[in-house]
Request: fold
Amino acid sequence: MLPLWFTPGRSVPQSGIGVDPYEFMTDTFGIQNRHHVGVERVLWSNDYPHISADWPASWRTIQAAFSGVPPEERHLILAGNSQRLYGFGGA
Reply:
């Protein structure tokens, strides 16, 4: 079965990043090592609606994990990379 986002003749999401993206939720290791992976390849997620998700306190987690991260990098990780990868929003 093909994923819902797949359209024949269209590139897969990973091709927008070049290699598989690095995703994280609450581990600060991901943020601390973002330059080793490449900021343009890091995606944040909260795993909603699973019980392990930090929702509805996601912003508290984001504030703690992204302390000291420049606004441009923060935007890429929280929204811009996903917008570019999946082709939605105003990246």
Q: What stands out?
A: Residues 28-86 form one domain. The helical segments are 28-32, 34-37, 58-65, 71-86. The longest strand covers residues 22-24.
